[in-house]
Amino acid sequence: MAQQRRLTGYRRPDGSVGTRNHVAILPVDDLSNAAAEGIAALVPGTLALPHAFGRLQFGDDLDLTFRTLIGIGSNPNIAAVIVIGIEPNWTDVVADGIAKTGKPVHRVAIEGKGDLRVIESASRYAKKFLQESSELTRQPVDRSDIVLSMKDGESDTTTGLGSCRVTAYLVDRWVESGGTMIFGETSELTGGEHLIAERCVDDDVRARFQAFYDDYVDMIEKTGANLLGSQPTQGNIAGGLSTIEEKAMGNIVKTGTVPIVGALAPAEAPTRPGLHFMDTSSAAAECVTLMAAGRGVVNLFPTGQGNVIGNPVQPVVKISANPKTTDSMADHIDVDCSDVLTQESTVEQAGEALIDLVERTINGRVTASEALNHREFTLTKLYRSA
Amino acid sequence: MTSSRPDFLAHRTGDAVAVAVRDLVPGPVRGGYLDDGDAAEELSLHHDVPLGHKLALRDIGAGEDVIEYGVRTAVASADIARGDYVHTHNVRSARWHNSVA
């Protein structure tokens, strides 16, 4: 057995471990994006996270936005946070939630001050946080400290045959080593949802999973819409996938063989090691953002036709077994496992190569999506605002 | 070396369809199964099948389940013969009845 690589990461006050060390400027709402970006422009090296929502939301939809923003600020890849909102009450909700992690948080509301005064005052905190975080150093960590997430996109039949099987090899090894993993894409389990239910570790997890699945699919079916071209997507169909069930089996293949120990609400963080399901859309930016809110610190992303997504908080590692894609979209692919498709290398060999690349990414290697500045940060909305 | 590379791969023994792992043209093709490295399959392909697209390993009547990964992944919407190209023109989702070409 290969000797395990020495892993390093940033250990946060709550004990969680990050693979990156950002100072985030987090708007509570769309109105605060301009000020957030103003602060990041004055203090380069900080990370503004503009997004489209956060006003007049209510009920479960508002709860999800709060849980997402608090989860993002609490992600161990973030060292310190400036929370900025138009009004103080919701700004406090988000800032108080993040402050529970013990990391530095500064909050500011725009009403009564205006953007320029807010940018000036908050930029001083941003500068201070940036200088302080620059002195944090990577510490030795274990696989059991690291939460990995996974999502596939622009899938085709080569994902089920190649990149998802290679990812599954990593999933089983990571969980055996005490690590934590998150998968999702609720509607994209259709046709194989019974296989997921069977792997749930107990009846409570199984019931929770089944309720998430049934609710999501009911919502889709109630529209009465023709899903062909949406799920599966045009790209999926161009890649050879014919039905949601066929696409789902590729999604399921990548989860490996370990038991499923948790069924998480969108943006909910796992509380124990092992493989967790999270209730998410299959849209890449929404899904990866929810998983970052669930404290994922690196995302594994098998792709067939070549999805280009990145995320500002958790680095996204692209894995492809499609030889046309690894050639035409090589700029976006971190791990080429097309040799698995031609049976010139085994899943074990490709899986060890993937583990090597993921561990180097944990240790600080910049992914293709980071290098190309892909920072898709997209909140999931459950219904219209009031 | 080249001759040992498969033209197509199926996930499980018993699957009704397999995936082309290179661009295929009509004529004799050969492939294998992921779950049984010793099992080989040879057939005469009737259509062009691009890399990543599917071909039928056996005859499938209209309305019959299409088995892949050992589970039902589609229902045939037309009669399909062994060696035919298989995609949205002759299979549809069994679960999402509106998901049709």
Automatic annotation (TrEMBL), chain A:
GO molecular function: lyase activity
Top-rank taxon, per record: Bacteria
BP GO annotations: D-galacturonate catabolic process
Residue ranges annotated for the D-galactarate/Altronate dehydratase second domain, each copy included: 9-132
Segments forming domain D-galactarate/Altronate dehydratase C-terminal: 144-383
Keywords: Lyase
UniProt name for this protein: (2R)-sulfolactate sulfo-lyase subunit beta
Organism of origin: Prauserella rugosa
Lineage: Bacteria, Bacillati, Actinomycetota, Actinomycetes, Pseudonocardiales
From TrEMBL, chain B:
InterPro entries referenced in this protein's UniProt entry, alphabetically: SAF, SAF_UxaA/GarD, UxaA_altronate/galactarate_dh
SAF domain residues: 15-92
Any GO BP annotation: D-galacturonate catabolic process
Cross-referenced CDD domains: SAF_AH_GD (cd11613)
GO molecular function per UniProt: lyase activity
Name this polypeptide is given: (2R)-sulfolactate sulfo-lyase subunit alpha
Signal peptide residues on this chain, from the entry's feature table: none
Highest taxon of the lineage: Bacteria
Record's keyword terms, sorted: Lyase
